[in-house]
Amino acid sequence: MAGHSKWANIQHRKGRQDEKRGKVWTRVIREIMVAARQGGGDLSINPRLRLAVEKAKAANMPADTIKRNIDKATGNLEGVNYEEIRYEGYGIGGAAVIVDTMTDNRVRTVAEVRHVFSKYGGSMGTEGSVAFQFRHCGQLILAPGTSEEAVMEVALEAGAEDIVPDEDGAIEVLTGPGQFEAVKIALEAAGLKPEVAEVTMRAENTIPLAGDDAARMQKIIDMLEDLDDVQAVYHNAEITG
Fold first, then answer.
1. 3-state SS string over the chain?
2. What are phi and psi for residue 157, nearest 5 degrees?
3. Which part of the chain is CATH 1.10.10.200?
4. Which residues of 12-42 are buried (b: 16+ CB within 10 A; e: fewer)?
5. 14-73 adopts what CATH topology?
6. Domain at 133-203: CATH code
7. Domain 85-119+207-239 classification at class level
8. Residue 77 has what pLDDT?
9. What per-residue confidence (pLDDT) applies to 21?
10. Which pTM was predicted?
């Protein structure tokens, strides 16, 4: 079954990320520190850290900055301890929202997240209230015009679970979290470079929003993403103009 149109949403998200380039380093550094603290500083045996370092390099972070933050996390240098906390809630039209944070002050973080939900027309939910509507998986999205046959051949051979052609021509490859890296490497080796490649929370079903509802939902997403402690925002709204 063809997937929903994701390309416009992806391009909008990438544009927003470019606008907030100054915050990218902060978020990547936190991800590096948590990944290194949990799984050690050896990239060869810590896939989460490898992915974080890859993001850091894509954001043009210097190698010594990357190393310094790995050293902080593994105890070789003094650093801040960040805690991972997930919040769940509802946006416009009952759209489900997951907010992943890394914080050194959970009281501050929950207050800021709750404020955004309440101020812009959403509401905080309890733990588990919306997470069941999402699938934890690897997601790789290739641009419209990419050969579906070529993607299918390479990705399935490398361990992908599903290939979903979207209605706008983009091709979505889904993997288990553990197979994500192998599939990404295989696609790139075959000259098929994904525009998006991440381990994510993918909505199983979407809620279409347009007009004023779409604008209000986008405001909630943007304001949550602007919070310093927020690492990622996932939602099941399909936003159209």
1. CCECCCHHHHHHHHHHHHHCHHHHHHHHHHHHHHHHHHHCCCHHHCHHHHHHHHHHHHCCCCHHHHHHHHHHHCCCCCCCCCEEEEEEEECHHHCEEEEEEEECCHHHHHHHHHHHHHHCCCEECCCCCCHHHEEEEEEEEECCCCCHHHHHHHHHHHCCCEEEEECCCCEEEEECHHHHHHHHHHHHHCCCCCCEEEEEEEECCCEEECHHHHHHHHHHHHHHHHCCCEEEEEECEEECC
2. -60, -35
3. 14-73
4. eeeeeeeeeeeebeebbbbbbbbbbbebebe
5. Arc Repressor Mutant, subunit A (1.10.10)
6. 3.30.70.980
7. alpha beta
8. 62
9. 58
10. 0.80
Residues in the chain with pLDDT values less than 50: 1-3
pLDDT digits (tens, 9 = 90+) for 189-231: 999 999 889 999 999 999 999 999 999 999 999 999 999 899 8
Question: Residue written as tokens 């991972």?
Answer: 84
Q: What is the pLDDT of residue 2?
A: 43
Q: Which residue spans of the chain are classified as CATH 3.30.70.980? A: 85-119+207-239, 133-203
Hey, what are 227's tokens? 């919070």
Structure tokens at 86: 């997930």
**pLDDT score at 19:** 57
